Amino acid sequence: MWELPPLTETLDEIRRHIESGQPAIGAWDGHRLVGSVRGKADGERMEVARLSVAPDMGGRGTGRRLLEAVTGAAPAGVRVVWLFTGGDSVQSLWLYESAGFTRVDERQDDFGIRVTLEKKAI
Hints:
This is GNAT family N-acetyltransferase. Keywords: Acyltransferase, Transferase. It comes from Lentzea indica. The protein has 3 helices and 6 strands. A 6-stranded mixed beta sheet has the order 1-2-3-4-6-5, with helices on one face. By secondary structure, the protein is an alpha+beta fold. The mean pLDDT is about 90. The chain has one domain: Gcn5-related N-acetyltransferase (GNAT) (Aminopeptidase, 3-Layer(aba) Sandwich), CATH 3.40.630.
């Protein structure tokens, strides 16, 4: 089993992303941030990045709503929204495919099988 490195960023890196005007969406339960996602647009394509949901909030639709929100927030001109996940990430693959994403590539990388999925922007 491959171990993925932690997804770490500095506060300044997060601020730069938010200030860039690229989509950055949070899901809140009162004062608690329980999920987040970001988009990284490049021309006609936008990557869905950093989708995360607090472990105790899984299975409540938070991830699906975040995915829908970031797809809907794609800047004008974006025609395709894409993302990748691990081939062993059964729950993630189910979520993405049930949300309309289609597998377009599978390849071996340093962490195992990487699956790329995409769908047309809303």
